[in-house]
């Protein structure tokens, strides 16, 4: 069964397109972008922007440790409702995401509960204390896409140089 999204303003930054266009979807694949397309079903996107999924590189999903505020599951649902298909979660949880086991925990919870792609950031320094750098190569190997002490300065310039 095919679906056409009609009457939306299509924005595709990679190709520089920004104009009213129709999008033909067959199953879960976009098969054609153009004008006056037809499908089995039509979605009217009048007054809407239609674009590839957005990426947010700085989100605070509070799991682990603050699940009463938000979880990976609820945060991913909220992000998806806003048009985001990928997010990078910050590491200032409790415990902090400063070792391979915690990165693996976030990745496992994302596989189990998230409806979008979750990419974890890890701490630049152990416990976000600014004193000792984390095992960044190991964090990268298990899936961390960035390191950050998210809003906390690293006051020791020698430590900061090692982080960089």
Give the ordered list of helices and strands.
EEEEEEHEHEHEH
Percent of residues in β-strands:
25-35%
> Got a strand count?
9
* Shape designation: elongated
Helix content: 10-25%
Extract low-pLDDT stretches.
none
Number of domains: 2
Would you tell me the overall average pLDDT? 96
> What is the structural class?
alpha/beta
Compute the CA-based radius of gyration: 20 Å
Kindly report the oligomeric state of this protein: single chain
Summarize the main sheet: 5 strands, mixed
**Helical element count?**
4
Distance between the termini: 51 Å
Description:
- The protein contains 4 helices and 9 strands.
- The protein has 164 residues and is of the alpha/beta class.
- The protein folds into 2 domains: 2-50, Urease, subunit C, domain 1 (Roll), CATH 2.30.40; 54-163, no CATH class.
- Strands 1, 2, 3, 4 and 5 form a 5-stranded mixed beta sheet that branches. A 4-stranded parallel beta sheet has the order 6-7-8-9.
- Strand 1 and strand 2 (17-26) form a beta hairpin.
- It is elongated, with a radius of gyration of 20 Å.
